[in-house]
């Protein structure tokens, strides 16, 4: 059973890449970008606890010299990558958040995910509806077989079913926003629940 609702929160994953002759150079450039982006996000109204580093790496970059016998790499600098996960409790802030992080130098937007803050409540609704649907199907099957339901023997929640997708008017996309013109639009968030119910029937 699927229960849908309009999203009331959105998470943006943004990355910045900075190159430098040394680790210190790359780190200095990266710190400037992330500090600027963080302050501007706070000024927009994003809560500090909702700005989280999910990846932070440094890697050497190389020059390659070729001769007849070998390929010899030489380190020519370092590249730093810093990825932030930014959660907005107001979906209308999305364009502003993307504008801020890209203006500050976090030009790689990896993902945009819509969600609902009351996911557990929606899942309980879906679970209740799934149990009611199972009962209705059991009644129908028993009637078709010339039997009546005596009692519910067992009901089991099928694990792994607290799943969701973001739907648009054109269909469903996998938890990602769909770009339309200069903006990004969302649809509805769907929460799915499934149960297995066993009923005892009699003639």
| Quaternary form | single chain
Strand proportion: over 45%
Provide the low-confidence segments as ranges: 163-183
Helix content: 25-40%
Helix/strand-derived category reads alpha+beta
Mean pLDDT: 82
> What integer value in Å does the Rg equal?
26 Å
Instruction: For the record, give the distance between the C-alpha atoms at the N and C termini, rounded to a whole number.
Output: 30 Å
Strand order of the largest sheet: 1-11-7-8
Shape: elongated
Number of helices: 3
Topology pattern, helix = H, strand = E: EEHEEHEHEEEEEEE
Largest sheet: 4 strands, antiparallel
Give the total of beta strands.
Answer: 12
Keywords:
single chain; 203 residues; alpha+beta; 4-stranded antiparallel beta sheet; 12 strands; 29% helix
Please provide a written account of the structure:
This protein has 203 residues and is an alpha+beta fold. Helix content is 29%, strand content 47%. The protein contains 3 helices and 12 strands, in the order E-E-H-E-E-H-E-H-E-E-E-E-E-E-E. The strands form 4 sheets. The chain has a 4-stranded antiparallel sheet. Strands 3-4-2-5 form a 4-stranded antiparallel sheet, with helices on one face. A two-stranded antiparallel ribbon has the order 6-12. The longest helix is centred in the middle third of the chain and has 26 residues, at 119-144. It is elongated, with a radius of gyration of 26 Å. Residues 163-183 have low confidence and may be disordered.
């Amino acid at each position: 059973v699927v229960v849908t609702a309009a999203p009331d929160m959105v998470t943006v994953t943004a990355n910045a890449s900075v190159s430098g002759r040394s680790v210190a150079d790359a780190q200095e450039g990266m710190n400037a970008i992330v500090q600027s982006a963080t302050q501007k996000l706070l000024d927009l109204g994003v809560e500090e606890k909702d700005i989280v580093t999910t990846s932070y790496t440094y890697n050497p970059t190389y020059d390659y010299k070729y001769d007849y016998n070998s390929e010899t790499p030489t380190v020519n600098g370092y590249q730093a990558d810093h990825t932030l996960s930014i959660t907005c409790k107001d979906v209308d802030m999305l364009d502003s958040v993307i504008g801020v992080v890209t203006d500050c130098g976090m030009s790689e937007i990896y993902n945009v995910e819509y969600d609902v803050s009351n996911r557990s409540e929606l899942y309980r609704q879906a679970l209740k509806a799934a149990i009611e649907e199972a009962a209705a199907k059991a009644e129908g099957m028993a009637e078709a077989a010339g039997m009546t339901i005596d009692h519910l023997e067992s009901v089991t929640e099928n694990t792994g079913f607290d799943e969701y997708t973001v739907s648009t008017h054109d269909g469903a996309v996998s938890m990602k926003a769909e770009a339309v013109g200069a903006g990004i639009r969302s649809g509805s968030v769907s929460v799915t629940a499934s149960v297995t119910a066993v009923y005892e029937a009699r003639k």
